[in-house]
Write a structure and sequence with these properties.
It contains 14 helices and 21 strands. The protein has 483 residues and is α+β, with helices and mostly antiparallel strands. The protein folds into two domains: 5-124, Herpes Virus-1; 146-482, Alpha-Beta Complex (Cathepsin B, Chain A), CATH 3.90.70.10. One of its GO terms (biological process) is proteolysis.
Length: 483
C-alpha cells in the first residue's frame, strides 16, 4: 500500500473529505454486511464483460460502476472517466488507479470524526435484497472434474431437487449422516453451502462428493476425464441406494420391492418391476416407455412391454433439430434381426417396433448421443449443431395410458386423447473438444429468467442468443403446462 497524494489532495478540503469518506465507508459497510449470494448478483459481476469476479472487481467510488481486473475494464473505466478510486468488492480495500496500488486509509477509523460519518451511513444505506437465493456459485476444477461440476450445477439449480433437499427429506432419516460415506448427505451439504448460511471451508461440498464418489466407484478415482451423462446416472444410482439403505417407507405410495437402479435403467419390463420408488431420483426423473411389436404385413400387435427410464438418449446423426431427434426415436422401425412369427399371418417375417412415452417425468433429461462407437473399435464425436427449443411440447411422442398399461394404476378410466404437455428448458450441459479429451460447461436459468454460464469456478451472465447457439450434450426440461 502507498501514501496516495491524490487522496491527500482530496483530504485537504474538508467538504470533499466528508463526502469521500461517507461514500467509501457506505460502500465498505454494504459489502461487509451483504450475503455471498447478493455479492455474486450485485458487486462482483463486471458491467462490461458480465464475468463474475474476473481476477477481482472494483466498485467505482464516484459512480458505482463495477469493472473487472483481468479484462482491464476497471482500468478502462478510470481512463475514460478519470474516476481514480475503486473499492475491491472482495475485501473492501481502496485502490487508486492513478497510483496503480492500494491506498491505506484505515487509520481514519480511529479519529473521532468517524462517528459523524457512521451515523449518516447507518441511516442512509441498505443491503441489496433478493426474494430468493439463486445459487450463483462456481466450483473449482480439481483436475479434470468439470464433468462432475457440470452435473452438480444442473442438480443445484433444479427447483424440485433443491426443495426436497432443503426440507431435509433425506437427512431426517439418514442413519449415516456422513458426507464422506453417503452421497445424499454430500448432495445436501453442497446445496446448503450454495443456498444457505452454513459456514464451510472453500469447496467443502465438492470435496465431499469427490471423496464419496472415489470410495464407491474406483473407476472415478484419479484425475482422468469422465462422461458427464454417466456421472449423472452414478449420482442418481447412489441416492437411490441411500434411500434403500435407510429403509424409508411411505404407506401412501408403492415401493419398488428391492429393484435396483441398474435394473430400472436396463429396462426390466416384468410387471413386478413397474412399481414406483419414492426416492428423490425416481420421484422427479423417472418415466415409462411403451414398446409395441407388430407384424410388418398385417400390422397386428403381438407384444407390448413397458420399461422405466431415467433419461432419453437420442440419435443426432443427420438431424438438425431436437424435434427431428424425437421423431426418429418415436418412428416405427423394421427389426430385421428379430425372429418373429405372426400368428395371424401364420408365418415368420420381420417385425415392426414403435417406442412411445407412456409416463413423463417432472424433470426430463435428454442426452444427445454425440459419441459414436465405430465397428473398428474406435470412437468419434458428432459435432453437428442440433437446434433445441425453449419450450418443448411432448404430446406427439406420448401415448395415453389405459387401466391395464398405467404403471401407477391410479386411473380406472383414462381419456384416450393425449393432451399438450409443455416443458420449459432450464439447463444445458455442453462438451467442447474430442472423444478423448474435452471440457464440460453448464448453462442454467434462474427463477427470474436469466441464463448463467458455469465454467468451473467462473460464473457469468449470458444472453439468450448465445446460449441457444451452444452444442448441447444434455438438455434439462421441466414440466410447465399440462392441458
Amino acid at each position: 500500500m502507498v501514501e496516495c497524494q491524490h487522496l491527500t489532495e482530496i483530504f485537504s478540503n474538508n467538504s470533499k473529505k466528508d463526502e469521500f469518506l461517507t461514500v467509501y465507508y457506505s460502500t465498505k459497510s454494504t459489502l461487509s454486511r451483504t450475503s455471498v449470494q447478493d455479492k455474486l448478483r450485485y458487486t462482483m459481476i463486471c458491467s462490461e464483460c458480465h464475468q463474475l469476479n474476473n481476477g477481482t472487481s472494483f466498485l467505482c467510488i464516484q459512480c458505482g460502476n463495477c469493472g473487472c481486473w483481468n479484462g482491464s475494464h476497471s482500468m478502462n473505466h478510470y481512463k475514460s472517466t478519470n474516476h481514480p478510486f475503486g473499492v475491491n468488492s472482495l475485501n473492501g480495500l481502496l485502490y487508486c488507479f492513478h497510483c496503480n496500488d492500494y491506498v491505506f486509509v484505515e487509520e481514519l477509523l480511529l479519529t473521532p470524526k468517524i462517528q459523524k460519518y457512521w451515523n449518516r451511513i447507518s441511516n442512509e444505506t441498505s443491503i441489496p435484497t433478493l426474494t430468493q437465493a439463486h445459487g450463483l456459485k462456481g466450483l473449482v476444477n480439481m483436475g479434470s472434474t468439470c464433468y462432475m461440476s457440470s452435473i452438480l450445477q444442473c442438480l443445484m439449480h433444479n427447483p424440485l431437487f433443491v426443495d426436497l433437499s432443503m426440507k431435509g427429506v433425506h437427512y431426517n432419516y439418514c442413519k449415516i449422516q456422513d458426507p464422506m460415506k453417503c452421497m445424499s448427505c454430500a448432495i445436501d451439504n453442497i446445496i446448503s453451502e450454495t443456498y444457505g448460511n452454513k459456514k464451510t471451508t472453500p469447496n467443502e461440498g465438492l470435496v465431499d462428493i469427490l471423496n464419496c464418489s472415489w470410495r464407491v466407484n474406483k473407476n472415478l478415482a484419479g484425475y482422468t476425464q469422465q462422461d458427464a451423462h454417466e456421472f449423472l446416472q452414478f449420482i442418481l444410482n447412489q441416492m437411490h441406494n441411500d434411500y434403500k439403505l435407510n429403509e424409508i417407507h411411505d404407506t401412501n405410495k408403492q415401493e419398488m420391492n428391492g429393484t435396483d437402479f441398474k435394473t430400472m435403467v436396463n429396462g426390466n419390463s416384468s410387471k413386478e418391476h413397474l412399481h414406483l420408488c419414492n426416492c428423490l431420483p425416481h420421484t422427479i426423473f423417472q418415466g415409462f416407455l411403451k414398446s409395441i411389436i407388430s407384424c410388418s404385413e398385417c400390422k397386428a400387435q403381438s407384444q407390448t412391454t413397458i420399461d422405466p427410464y431415467m433419461d432419453l438418449s437420442l440419435d443426432v446423426k443427420g438431424k438438425s433439430t431436437l424435434y427431428e431427434c424425437l421423431e426418429s426415436f418415436h418412428r416405427t422401425e423394421r427389426l430385421h434381426d428379430f425372429t418373429y412369427n405372426c400368428k395371424k399371418c401364420n408365418k415368420s417375417q420381420d417385425a415392426n417396433r414403435q417406442l412411445s412415452i407412456l409416463k413423463l417425468a417432472p424433470i426430463m433429461v435428454i442426452q444427445l448421443k454425440r459419441f459414436e462407437h465405430l465397428i473398428t473399435g474406435s470412437s468419434v464425436k458428432i459435432n453437428d449443431f442440433v437446434e433445441f427449443p425453449l419450450h418443448l411440447n411432448m404430446k406427439s411422442f406420448c401415448t395415453a395410458p389405459t387401466p391395464d398399461t398405467d404403471p401407477t394404476n391410479l386411473n380406472e378410466k383414462t381419456n384416450k386423447s393425449t393432451p399438450d404437455m409443455i416443458y420449459e428448458l432450464t439447463g444445458i450441459v455442453t462438451h467442447r473438444g474430442t472423444v478423448n479429451e474435452g471440457h464440460y460447461i453448464t448453462y442454467t436459468k434462474t427463477a427470474d429468467g436469466v441464463w448463467y454460464q458455469f465454467n468451473d469456478s467462473v460464473v457469468m451472465k449470458v444472453p439468450l442468443e448465445q446460449m441457444l447457439k451452444e452444442q448441447a450434450y444434455l438438455l434439462i426440461y421441466t414440466i410447465r403446462q399440462f392441458n
